Amino acid sequence: MELQKINSPKMIKQLTNKELEILAKDIRKFLIETCAVTGGHIGANLGVVELTLALHKHFDSPTDKLLFDVGHQAYIHKILTGRSDAFHSLRQYKGLCGFPKRNESEHDVWEAGHSSTSLSGAMGMAKARDIMGENYHVVPIIGDGAITGGMALEALNHIGHDQTNMTIILNDNEMSIAPNVGAMHNMFTRLRTNAHYNRFKNDVDGVLSQFPMMRKTADRMKDSVKYFVMDGIFFEELGLQYIGPIDGHSFEELEEAIELSKKTKGPSIIHVITKKGKGFKHAEDDMIGTWHGLGPYKIETGEVIKSESVGKSWGSIISDELLKYASEDRRIVAITPAMPVGSKLTKFQQELPDQFFDVGIAEQHAITMAAGLAAVGMKPFVAIYSTFLQRAYDQLLHDVDRMKLNVIVGIDRAGLVGADGETHQGVFDISIVAGLPNTVIMMPKDAFEAQDLMKTAIEYNEGPIAIRYPRGNSLTSVAQDYVPSRVEIGTWDYIVEDVNSDVTIITYSESMIHMAIEVSQLLKQDNISIDIVNARFIKPIDKTMMQTITRKTKNIVVIEEVIKHGGLGSIVANYIVDHRLSNVLDRIGIDDVYIEHGDVPKLLSDIGISSEQIAAQIKKMMND
Ligand SMILES: Cc1ncc(C[n+]2csc(CCOP(=O)(O)OP(=O)(O)O)c2C)c(N)n1
Ligand SMILES: CC(=O)[C@@H](O)[C@H](O)COP(=O)(O)O
Ligand SMILES: [Mg+2]
């Protein structure tokens, strides 16, 4: 069956398992070739080809609700729901979203991007069905990583208690992004191997071979022992019917399990064992998480095609500095909520394993565990993507900021991230964190200042301090012999300072400082002179510098790659209002909208953040 011809899952319902196997092969080939050009979450998707085909064969989407947790593994779902011809635009500007999207298809009943939401969403849909007296299946598909997220456990607690009809698919491939961690992961391993039970069973069978008359008793004994060693008991005790473990690449086993779950009253969980990256050797052999999600690659060699760049990745700049300080001080520890590879902490993990914690998909736990560490004199550094920090807002407020604990928060992927789109743009953290009374927020203008600000953070003992850094690489390469110096908290500096400047641009981050410099060069042609201030401390602002700025130029422009509401522009506006000043302030940033996927320069120009657009806005400001 040609993939381009599949415009509805109904088209696969008549296929035999043999035909489905052929289709699965075609889908794998299509995914490998497409993602080689577009990039994407190839590993996760190659692991769920048979599973997704079986779900669409044995359930009736969109009447039956399929909810993909995280949603990064929904490419096959999109192929089967008539979107294969759009895959060339996967994760590109105005192209196919890399996650389920309600406005793309009626089959995308649940959007995600952040982990561990599918069970709660499913519970909501199942309750609605029951209240309205309707009759359809609700089927959340959640991975062995995502199910360890706190929200998932909150939902299981409710689902089991209420005995609400639903079929939960646990897709267990032993991987989160990196190899999965935690006690639940160990439980799944036991489940997969039944090591305890198999050993016991073999021992009993061995003994029995001499006493065949005891076979019945022994079989009864084995069953009761199985009940105790089988960790399915975890789900059974929560009130779910545990089905499995089954081979997630066998259409026969999937069909049998799904049909059994349909007949089961109350909630059931089918434990599906899959291989992440299946059918593509480079991805199958990946044991660190490279092939979980990546940019374009060469199919034959598996070589990832990297973008040219002078500098190191921002994550490496920060984590190398952290490793330097932690190597000399055992009080310094690194915590990551399931992103060791993305946050460039694998070297730290290898060199200082006792000072490293991958807590799994558990942002709330990560932040509050850091509070516990700091409360007894340690210096924890939590590396957390801006977007995932949203998960731990109360922990930051209630457990860290309020107690003024010395926690360093490394806000990674700060700013627009591009291909991951709406659910991952790092544009809300300033509005969230700037509202906390005691937390300092910094962002370096280049790799050198990043080292200065890391030294500042390590030596800062007045409470929580956050350092923001973007996705991608710095434009500056770090000199090995550079000796970082501490920066006084709340101090800005002039990047460009003219005697008779007409306008002051206040901004922060390497990309926005470079943008401001381009703007000043454009405006020189119109005899408009610009001062540029590096607001490397977003909070607290530099009050002395603000006094200078507001006296020197009537016109002030704040440029930032975050939502305007609650950003630095708001803080500067508050300063002007609170001091009853008459300055004219333009705030350039993101209005109250979500920014979809695409390449960052294109997304920025849509927001009005390009040197030409800003120059035009300043010219208009001057003429108003
Ligand atoms: C709240 C949150 N934290 C972290 C992530 C980053 N993340 C995306 S997928 C993933 C691993 C998910 O593992 P699993 O559920 O087992 O799915 P698999 O990729 O193995 O199919 C992580 C940590 C996220 N999307 N959301
Ligand atoms: C789906 C998910 O949340 C992660 O895979 C995320 O896409 C990783 O982002 P980076 O590629 O920026 O590490
Ligand atoms: Mg997994």
UniProtKB/TrEMBL annotation:
Residues annotated as domain Transketolase-like pyrimidine-binding: 312-477
Keyword annotations of the record: Isoprene biosynthesis, Magnesium, Metal-binding, Thiamine biosynthesis, Thiamine pyrophosphate, Transferase
Pathway note: Metabolic intermediate biosynthesis; 1-deoxy-D-xylulose 5-phosphate biosynthesis; 1-deoxy-D-xylulose 5-phosphate from D-glyceraldehyde 3-phosphate and pyruvate: step 1/1
Taxonomic superkingdom: Bacteria
Cofactor note: Binds 1 Mg(2+) ion per subunit.
GO MF assignments: 1-deoxy-D-xylulose-5-phosphate synthase activity; magnesium ion binding; thiamine pyrophosphate binding
Reactions listed under catalytic activity: D-glyceraldehyde 3-phosphate + pyruvate + H(+) = 1-deoxy-D-xylulose 5-phosphate + CO2
Matching PROSITE patterns: TRANSKETOLASE_1, TRANSKETOLASE_2
Binding residues annotated for thiamine diphosphate, in chain numbering: 72, 113-115, 145-146, 173, 280, 363
One annotated GO biological process: pentose-phosphate shunt
Main function: Catalyzes the acyloin condensation reaction between C atoms 2 and 3 of pyruvate and glyceraldehyde 3-phosphate to yield 1-deoxy-D-xylulose-5-phosphate (DXP).
Subunit structure: Homodimer.
Entry protein name: 1-deoxy-D-xylulose-5-phosphate synthase
Source organism per UniProt: Abyssicoccus albus
Chain's gene name: dxs
